[in-house]
């Protein structure tokens, strides 16, 4: 027998299903309408000294319920302070919670918290090294970077290279690969919204190492005249090596100075060493040097007299004078064009008068400068007194020269008055007179006499020395030819 459902029961089942579906669809809306306090952010980081506002709102208040009271509170106002409007101020380094409370008209209290971390930001990076030189193939540490301020929270930084093919940065090491120039930049790792990354840059130059140094005349001795200049010729090797200005030095700048342009100046007579140096990797120094011998070239030389007069058998010391006084090439050599008459020592210039006559003596310096002097050799008795007569207080003598090439310009005598026995009457007197007639082989000489003693009956006059126009003088011995006795108050011939 077939059974059927009662229509009333069927209607009840349908009603239950509809209610169940209605309740199911209404559950999310009821959940969303639960009141809660929402802050725009739950946590953030702020720099010390900065300020701002935190926005908040209540979601899901029932109809007819309103906000009655609001407040803000900081868990540590010494770190982050906040006012009733929600304006916060970062006071000091650290972390604090900002608490927002809201009381509604139905007496409910809602609360939300935001965690604020106050940090000390990086203001700048500094580096004491503005530039750095590296040799190709060298590995080095980058220079030290200082983070300012010292208490900044983020103190890390990273290096980067503008040209890794020249200098590559590998962690905390720099690798110089090839000659050139690039920029290395140290950048702070601090990441703060709205802030520019702090960085500092340096210039790095990679040099090709110098392997050797070439100096013209290396190890040689060069001769410079006083005040002369010399430009040093220096070249670094290999040719592709990074150009370096050599460092020049003198072992004695008072003798020869050198500029950093390689110009040597001879300052004074002497010898010193000039060096040129460059620096190579590993603190190695490559140096080359030469020696400078400073001389003072002779400009002129001459004998102190143009003519020297000597007696046969006598030796004469000839002297020379030269300019400048500090000249160094003074290795003089002496020669005679007639050694038979006058020979000369080649090193001392001492002349030996061998025979009566004339000879030219030459002085030659090591630099080729020459001087000439004439030497006249007189007989042993070059002057004789032929006659003499007394004219009042003047004694007139006839003096003859025995050598044609000399001309007497002055004669010195010794005069002695004698008594009737021929003994000296008084002390001898030295006199000088000039011939009247010049030049001539026989010359008249007038000698002015001093007061004649009463006991004197005669006088004896002796030639001591003759001066010559040609230069020089001769001293005579006591020979009859150069001596004359004259009676007083009468003529004697």
Topology of this protein?
Layout: H1 7-32, E1 36-39, E2 43-47, E3 51-53, E4 56-59, E5 67-74, E6 80-82, E7 87-90, E8 94-104, E9 109-119, E10 124-127, E11 131-135, E12 139-140, E13 145-148, E14 157-161, E15 167-170, E16 173-176, E17 180-188, E18 199-207, E19 212-215, E20 221-225, E21 229-231, E22 234-237, E23 247-250, E24 256-258, E25 263-266, E26 270-280, E27 284-295, E28 300-303, E29 307-311, E30 315-317, E31 320-323, E32 333-336, E33 342-344, E34 350-353, E35 357-364, E36 370-378, E37 383-391, E38 394-401, E39 408-418, E40 429-433, E41 442-448, E42 458-468, E43 473-475, E44 483-487
Parallel strand pairs: 2-9, 11-18, 20-27, 29-36
Antiparallel strand pairs: 1-4, 3-7, 5-8, 6-7, 8-9, 10-13, 12-16, 14-17, 15-16, 17-18, 19-22, 21-25, 23-26, 24-25, 26-27, 28-31, 30-34, 32-35, 33-34, 35-36, 37-38, 38-41, 39-40, 39-42, 42-43, 42-44
Structure description:
The protein has 493 residues and is mainly beta. Strands 39, 40, 42, 43 and 44 form a five-stranded antiparallel beta sheet that branches. Strands 2-9-8-5 form a four-stranded mixed beta sheet, with no helix packed on it. Residues 26-31 have low confidence and may be disordered.
Strand content: over 45%
Going by helix content, strand content and strand pairing, the class is mainly beta
Question: How many strands, what sense, and barrel or not for the largest sheet?
Answer: 5 strands, antiparallel
End-to-end Cα distance, whole Å, is: 219 Å
How many DSSP H or I helices? 1
Contiguous low-pLDDT stretches (5 residues minimum) are 26-31
Taking all residues together, what is the mean pLDDT?
84
CA-based shape: rod-shaped
- Number of DSSP strands? 44
Radius of gyration equals 61 Å
